[in-house]
Fold this sequence. Notes:
Blueprint: E1 9-13, H1 17-26, E2 31-36, H2 39-48, E3 50-53, E4 59-62, E5 65-68, E6 80-83, H3 90-98, E7 106-109, H4 116-123, E8 128-142, E9 145-156, H5 163-171, E10 176-178, H6 187-208, H7 214-217, H8 219-238, H9 247-260, H10 267-273, H11 280-293, H12 299-314, H13 326-329
Parallel strand pairs: 1-2, 1-6, 2-5, 3-9, 6-7, 7-8, 9-10
Antiparallel strand pairs: 3-4, 8-9
Amino acid sequence: MTTGKQTRSVAIIGTGSLACIFAARLADVANVHLIGSWRQQIDAINRYGILLHELDATTSTVEARAICYPEQTVGLAADYVIVLVKSYQTLASIDRIKSCLKADTIVLTLQNGLGNIEQLRDGLPDQFISAGVTMQGGNIKRPGAVIHAGNGLTIIDDSPQLAELIELFIAANLPVETARQSGANSINEVLWRKLIINSAVNPLTALLRQPNGYLVENKAARGLSEATAIETANVARLEGAWPAQELDGAATLTTNAARVTGPNRSSMLQDISRGNRTEIASICGQVVTRAKRHGHKAPYNEKWWSLVQQAESKQIASTGLPLYTIDELV
Length: 330
């Protein structure tokens, strides 16, 4: 396949850090538009481009086009739509997605948590919709400027409809694998694998206001994180997405992830520090809800869900101080 700006159109739903990273990388191989509602970000991107602070400490500026929906008409007829909004914005994003569609547009969600693809399929019943995960990492430095914090792997379904999109990712230097290439039997296993990590890392780092590596260095924090990972893996087992004999492997998976991303501040920690809403409901909330369907409980996930929601309701801006000490959480 020959990739090029004249051959494929990609609409990225969202204007946050990950949306900007994907847009900047794909801009060399496709016609890319970001679609969102954050006016300051959109104005900065259209005026100056996306300024990327790269992993090697260099910077690059990529010309990009962003559309403020619904103020501006979209009408893109995109070949691919990549959904990168927060999970609690999924339903609200459906009208944005509809404004980009043609009959054979392929929609791919790379959002955190569970439940996103079900909402998209309910709202877009006539489209091909698939899910994946990405370990790309980034932070917004200011409107139009993004710190690229990690060039992680993106894993998507093995469906033949996604083969060309995989080639676009490869051409754009975005590390990508299919679910089977990653060692999973299905994309559902991949989604649960990331959920195990997110449920055991994100809420604890947010509540303790610590980087990921703290969950490796502090014995008590590591114990809570690993216990949460095993609990989430057990729910994944009930859902047919994790082998029963490998529950303890979830603890190793999570600790290794926290170690590799040690200096990183989780997205939930960033949200709490800004006084913003988090994705706790689609992470720990989904674990609790699905456990109940099987007549089980998930007390660690339920506790983190409750505590993070309490922090959200208080809209606590960053003071640099933890919301809880580790002794209070144990």
